[in-house]
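pasting for the record
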Amino acid sequence: EKRTMTVIEKNGYRDSVYINAAKIFQGIHMEKPKDRILVRYGDESLSPVLTFKDEYSQRVSYELAFSALKYQDLLEEILLDSCVYPCQSIPDELTSLLVVMLYDLQNRKFQAREILDDEEPVAEVRKIESYLSSSRTKLAAALARYRIKHGALSIEYILPETIRKQEQRASALPLCVWINTFKISLQDIFRDLEKKGFTRVDSVSDLDCYTYCMDQHCHDVLVFPSSLKEELLNLDLFADCKLLLQ
């Protein structure tokens, strides 16, 4: 039976990912000067306790937190302009969760999240999700006003050009994948990938579509084209931790 990954990125994340991302964001968000604070994030004195289901959920929790950090100013302005924040029923301790879930909601074009059958609900996540969902029209309008104001085709164009160029370069880099030799041998990996339609080539310069090559220096590392990231992460080889994305 094919196992599924912890997260379905196009349709949202599991509740546990939002909680962990909010805890991470709480510790890394930008602090404004006291006379400019409009959005409050609660007590930061306690170190967050992070519990990850697996390596994949850990990675996407950090990705979500740092994506929210990158657009913190935008997300705060959307919350304020739409009058979604402040809200008496949402304490400051849940503001980080509100921000990371807003980032994900706008990233999904304000479409509803797909909840998996085996999902273990977290009350705080469902509360914030319900609140944001009921305010989707106001939030989308606030985002549209922000983009018009800044003449941006998408939120990526709001970032400084240097950061956008860095992200474009990073997204084009080949994917490096570790083979977990405690769980599977190199030959079994090669056979499994061949069954799934992948072809082994000699070098990175030969990568194209469904191909991969061995790293020149590490015998347990494979290199894939960057365009295959989503498809690779949906393979049971990753779900079973036989392959690990670097």
